[in-house]
Design brief:
The complex is a heterodimer of chains A (675) and B (67). In chain A, 80% of the residues lie in helices and 0% in strands. By secondary structure, chain A is mainly α. Chain A is elongated and about 95 Å long. Chain B has two helices and two strands. Chain B has a two-stranded antiparallel sheet with strand order 1-2. In chain B, a hairpin with a 2-residue loop joins strand 1 and strand 2. In chain B, helix 1 runs antiparallel to helix 2. The longest helix of chain B is centred in the middle third of the chain and has 23 residues. The chains are: A mainly alpha (675), B mainly alpha (67). The interface between A and B is medium-sized, with 12 and 13 residues.
Amino acid sequence: MTLSRQSAGPVLGPNLTELYKSLAKRVAGLLDSRGLVAVIFSLKTFGAALIALFLAFWLGLDEPKWALMTVFIVSQPDSGLVLAKSFFRMLGTIAGALVSTVLVFTFSQYGELFLASLAAWIGLCNFAARTERNFTSYGFLLAGYTAAIIGIPAALNPNGAYSLILARFTEISVGLACAALVSTVILPRELTPLIVARTRALARQAEQLATSAVNSVHRRKDIAAKRLQLVKDLAVAEAMRSSAYFESPEALLLSEALRRRMEAALHLAAVSDATLATSGSSESFGSEHPATLASLISAADDTPFGNGALISRLVPVEARRTLDDALVQLQRSEAAFYLRSPVPTSNVCPRLWSDPLDAALTGIRSALAIIITSAFWFTTAWPSGPTAVISAGVACSLVGAMKQQATVSFALILALLVAALPIFVTVFYIMPIATDFLSLGVALAPLLMICGFIIAVQPLGVFPVVYFAISSNIDNTMRYDAVGFLNNSLAILIGFGIALGLFATFFPENPARLGRRFRGQLFVQLRNLARRRAFTLQEYESALCDHLAMTLEPISDVLIVNECLGSAVAALSAARAIDNLNRTIRKGQLAAEMATEAPRLLRQISKTPVKGGRASLTRSAWTARLLRRRALAMARTAVDTKEAEVLGSVIVDLETLRSGLLKVRQLLPDNSDVR
Amino acid sequence: MFAEIDFLGAFVPAIAAWFLASVGLFVPLDVLLTKSGAYRLFWHPPLVRFALFAIIFCGGSLELSMR
């Protein structure tokens, strides 16, 4: 018995294991292929939509179409994303329902006032959505257009307003529950393993970038491309992390460690820029044990030439030290992640940057769309006017949060025109054949499953489903009204058309303006950093990376992309110098004279005006140079090596700050110094 | 029997309140089970997670409705 086991084991065991492993690998690879993911997603979403529709019919809800529509709106191929989106959709729906209740019970007798306040609310929500990120932004959008979706029908029928608001809320909740349940229980596609793999890849990318920066063989153009890719990948990874947070408690526990890992990768990438700037000028990168700053200072001649040569040696040595520290930090964060050691949760919520002007324009544009469509409705007394107003609100909200809005809204209108025929055929030729729920499911399958497949590839595919749900008025007792269908279709097209017109004409987004606003933002945040009140360097780096990725997303012009990247690198190097100086000042390691002069310089930078800022920055750069010379003189006379070392790093910071400030001048408008 | 709850003048079904209470019970239990690694014993953790919530919600609802 024992013998036969022993003989069979080595022959069959490994073969079976290998077979099993290769089979599992093949199945996993197949399940991960894009096409199959889309097919599975389409089937799951259709199943969830049918469950939601059945529940809505069974509960006797007023308009089951909202449950069906909600399933498609929140569904995403990754289950973590569905939960996050559902959570924020629920919050947005509650806020929208509450506001519509207030508006209906206050202004329903005064149509103009009602629509004006609705326009103001939607404008405000879209403004807030533009300043936020990911699904928080989505929550604000929802709060805006839910008020239109619920409020307008309720205001037209104030007597049944309360029950209508409650019914809409219930229908949406049923849709959310079904989508969340199906996406998490049936063939879930968890986000956590994806984000873990992505952060691992990011860490390797950052290490490669650092290696390329140290090794001067690599061309700067290649390094810039790598850096750009890293910035984009980091932004995607951060968006995934913030959604994975909702997936499971395990994802929640990993979230902080993942954040640290990404921050360390970003810091390494940012630091490698400084190394890149100095890599050609020093031999210190080749040596394993670079000299200390104090020893370099004591060995140099005290002549103008000697001082210049000394500075150009000190800067790369310090850059190498910073790079080494960043590498160690990345490795520590990786070790902490793999060993699952407890990571202290940061109490500081990273503040991301947003462009207030851009957000304000989005808000005004949305409010204008509501006002113009309402004016058209009131003037023509058009029975489908409410649908047009709701469509304009929805289009402004959803498309307003995207980039290239005019192009997207045009594509949307085209998609709706294309979808009109299959939807018409489904509603008026296929659905009437259905006699029970099962046959209704079969009737809906072709259209909804194709839409589900499209959504997995392109999220805008959800609009045809919304169009179908609104125009079909799917209910327990169906009424087939072709005239109503055409009127609704026309109303949706007019609403979207007005939104498109505004996106194309009312301060349309253009790459040059985006780049200009980005550079302005860099300068403002640099001032805040010098003021010390805003954030730490790590927060500055994270916010810069996020803002850079967001700005570059719609820009295809290589010149503008390079300008933005160059500005970001200059701002980062100045920010690092400011942060280092701030930390040295806080530690109280500076001698009396430097301890008063360095904070004064930072105050001077923090008060730099935008107008005439170039001259002010030049003055600050000269002050930094003066302070650097004084620090060098003090370092030469320092008796203590530790003091000389501190002064040496201050010299490097002041030199980096000086050159950074001169580069940062380019962030400001050209004509600012013209008097 | 479930009575309706008066919430700011609006009658809300009591089952909605119990739903929120169930979520409140489920979340700490879920975190505890994840930390202890209990979910690793199961083939399909999301199904177990859902079943756990269904037991808490439905069990509590039945218990409350019979009073």
